[in-house]
Amino acid sequence: MTAPTDNLRINGERLWDSLMEMAKVGPGIAGGNNRQTLTDADAEGRSLFQSWCEAAGMTLGVDKMGTMFATRPGADPDALPVYVGSHLDTQPTGGKYDGVLGVLSGLEVIRSLNDLGIRTKHPVVVTNWTNEEGARFAPAMLASGVFAGAIALDHAYDRRDPEGKSFGDELKRIGWVGDEEVGARKMHAYFEYHIEQGPILEAEQKQIGVVTHCQGLWWLEVTLTGREAHTGSTPMNLRVNAGLAMARILEMVQSVAMENQPGAVGGVGQMFFTPNSRNVLPGKVVFTIDIRSPDRAKLDGMRARIEAEAAEIAEALGVGCSIEPVGHFDPVTFDPTLVSRVRSAAERLGYSRMDIISGAGHDACWAAKVAPTTMIMCPCVGGLSHNEAEEISPEWAAAGADVLFHAVLETAEIAG
Ligand code: GLV
Ligand code: MN
Ligand code: MN
């Protein structure tokens, strides 16, 4: 396999223009995006992406999870495709680049191949995975999880958003139930380019993160049952206070994560109080603990401790406690051949680089179960992500897309 020559570059200006165009769909309230999965804004973003893919001469396939696969054919009809992708859905207060950069850089790779008149032996497929974020429907990376055989399709269809709407119904409503069996496609390789979502690359002044691993995760949904009662007239010793149990469990999660340093994180981003009224002690509190580590033993150890200690905390207050795991993947080691291909592409292109472990989850974590997979990262300002103020520079975006271009080209092979 020959490496592409170092003068091959993507069109950074066109990539940036497309990022800014997509950012107009589902605007947030502070300069970012709210394009949550299976909303009308998601449908609008999908249509825009579809129109760009068709204009670039690609053919679109959609599977039963609504994941979009846009194909540029290869010269060898028997060669398995090289996949490139990420996600177009966002958090409720999402940035313009989380996920979107990977999908639109995949498109930019295709546009550049077209400009340069390059044919590849393997087809190249640009993918938009449905519901990467897990903000509306837990778990995150739902469609890639089904694709990898880790999550059943029926289970995925039955996931509910906070209003009780099901994933299956919402997918139908926006008109994106495809006809392909999920996971039927076979991949020669999968590449995902993403912003770091952390502070390391910027602090180290490196343009490219060569992603070697991704840390594993557990999402533990805790339901605490107290007794609804008047906050003014109920004496302190007669309260069955589910809110207090939640507060103590939050402190405990913080301590468990701190005691597992380095290489562990834990926190809570979502909670629901019922009835959520100022002067009623909550009868029910539901919240999700998110714990992560690249070390599987550490991750599972944290889970066991949190489950045991949460039960003790609740019992001491007379509060009922049940815990259900609603999201999980093991730590991932990416494919060494593809990792070194990314590393040498960065070298060839003259970009500074360092090896890095992904702190966030990505569809690549599930793709790695079924295909040789790796990731590329670029810095983001202040490490800020899942925040509308998330920012990158056009130069950073283009450098990573150049590396993606080279790694994909080397893997898809220039047709003789
Ligand atoms: C997915 O975006 C995650 O890391 O939570
Ligand atoms: Mn993402
Ligand atoms: Mn995200």
3D structure, described in words:
It is a single chain. The chain is of the alpha/beta class. It has twelve helices and 15 strands. The strands form three sheets. Strands 1, 2, 3, 4, 5, 6, 13, 14 and 15 form a nine-stranded mixed β-sheet that branches. A hairpin with a 5-residue loop joins strand 1 and strand 2. The termini are close together.
Short description:
The protein has 416 residues and is α/β, with parallel strands linked by helices.
Essential attributes:
416 residues, alpha/beta, nine-stranded mixed β-sheet, four-stranded antiparallel β-sheet, 12 helices, 15 strands, binds glyoxylic acid, binds manganese (II) ion
Structural class: alpha/beta
Helix content estimate: 25-40%
CA radius of gyration: 22 Å
Describe the global form.
elongated
Tally the helices: what do you get? 12
Please state roughly what percent of the residues sit in beta strands, choosing from under 5%, 5-15%, 15-25%, 25-35%, 35-45% or over 45%.
Answer: 15-25%
Major sheet: 9 strands, mixed
Tell me, rounded to a whole number, the average pLDDT. Answer: 97
Order of helices and strands: HHEEEHEHHHEHEEEHEEEHEEHEHEH
The molecules bound to the chains, other than polymers, are: glyoxylic acid, manganese (II) ion
- Which residues sit in consecutive blocks of at least 5 with pLDDT less than 50? none
Number of strands: 15
Q: Distance between termini?
A: 11 Å
